[in-house]
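Page 37, continued from 36.
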């Protein structure tokens, strides 16, 4: 019985590790404009960080991967995805990352609302 408990515990730990490190099945670049916040969360999960400025919501996705195609800032207006900024748009992306560093946005652990 003890061996079974140890085995099950080990399987659960391994499963939790691999699901926590999983990458998205869809990259942020593939999410079409016009999607709602809840639809984006269903596709990509909660953002790593977020902030609000001038009536727009900015969601920052930064995976552990070094692939720049997986790093993105998604911009929402009135709950709808209106723009995506990725490292390919270097100046704009860098400007938003600098803004992010200055702010104290919500982190994934404290992400609270998903109102569309």
């Amino acid at each position: 019985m003890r061996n079974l408990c140890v085995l099950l515990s080990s399987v659960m730990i391994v499963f939790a590790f691999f699901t926590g490190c999983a990458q998205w099945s869809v990259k942020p670049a593939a999410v079409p404009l016009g999607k709602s916040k809840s639809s984006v969360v269903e596709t990509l999960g909660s953002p790593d960080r977020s902030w609000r400025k001038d009536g727009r919501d900015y969601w920052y996705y930064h995976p552990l991967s070094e692939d720049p195609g997986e790093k993105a800032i998604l911009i929402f207006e009135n709950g709808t995805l209106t723009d995506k900024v990725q490292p390919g748009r270097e100046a704009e992306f860098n400007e938003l990352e600098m803004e992010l560093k200055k702010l104290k946005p919500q982190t994934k652990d404290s992400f609270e609302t998903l109102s569309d």
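Residues 2-20 form the longest helix (19 residues). Flag for discussion at group meeting. Residues 14-23 have pLDDT under 50 and may be disordered.
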